[in-house]
Amino acid sequence: MSEWLIYRGTGVTHDGIVELPPPPPWRNFDGEPLVPPAPALDASSKRRLGVRGRQGTLHRPGTREQELVNAALYLRRPLLVTGEPGSGKSTLAHSVAYELGLGRVISWPIVSRTTLRDGLYQYDAIGRLQDLQIERSASGSHAQDGGEGLRAEHIGNYIRLGPLGTALLPSERPRVLLIDELDKSDIDLPNDLLNVLEEGEYTIPELERIAERAPEIPVRCDDGTTVTVRDGKVRCRAFPFIILTSNGERDFPAPLLRRCIHLQLDRPDKDRLAGMVRAHFGEDAAGRYEALIDAFMARSPADVRAVDQLLNAIHLVDEAGWTDAEETRQRLTAELLRPLDRTR
User: Fold this and answer.
1) Confidence of residue 139 (pLDDT cuts 50, 70, 90)
2) Residues 6+ positions from 294 with CB-CB distance below 8 Å
3) What is the pLDDT of residues 152-163, one digit of tens each?
4) So what's the pLDDT on residue 147?
5) Closest CA to 120 of 67, 187, 199
6) Domains of the chain by range and CATH?
7) Which of 283, 229, 103, 230 lies closest to 177 in space, CA to CA?
8) Could you tell me if 41 and 97 are in contact, meaning their C-beta atoms sit under 8 angstroms apart?
9) Which of 224, 234, 195, 227 lies closest to 116 in space, CA to CA?
10) How many CB atoms lie within 10 A of CB 319?
């Protein structure tokens, strides 16, 4: 039954290019012109997946997690991942990108002021106006002809595609987009996302208005690359692998849930915690720090702790070397492992 799995969560990069199965007809997109392949994984992924760099040491997801990730890959649907802070929601995006060779993860952290346009693109109208005034002043002319030509030619210098806008660029292979903590958004953003997630395209009005005079405009992307936008429109070819994370602080509208595959991450068990510790501190670390793992696990169902707390405690013990200061070790590790929902 495991032959259908594309992503296996083994922490081992596939040899060669992983060919995804064809999308359903209703999720088949035809955007162009094609953009260059995604940049390589960066330090952000390495921090989450483990600094040791040895294959097979990354923590492995459970069967249900593997199956739902693959369902999202097959169906070209976003994956809505909910769970406690530190349960591995964000790490999952980096794990998929690493194993399938999909390049650098694009991250879109959500706050209460985030809008859909923030995710698609930003347009620096003020900077453009200031530069235009400087150009006119330097040329000693206020004629409209010169300014019109400058605006059409250089407008791309003032447009930067956002994380979602970059992920939707037409590429042969899907980009990985992490929309982090969607439950922190205002009430409108989940509904605003619906059309973009369904249609896989968006328009940049500032470029669409000048399409007849300048049909192809180079713009900067969220990942630092530069691409050409044609006629002010962007339409994907390979729909990105999108993970939307939530700490469960709010409910989402049914239309958004209908467009997503939903994965609920449970608290990591001891085996999974041991795998995370091995990924960051070496193969023998799970045995050396079993007492700290057990202390992290020893909490009531109501207590909230993040895996980061465990990793911080282990690193401090590892670096400080408290071989003759057991009282100090116990006191500080107890502070570092204090449940997040307790302020005193």
Assistant:
1) confident
2) 270
3) 668 999 999 999
4) 46
5) 199
6) 2-122+156-264 (3.40.50), 270-336 (no CATH)
7) 103
8) yes
9) 195
10) 8
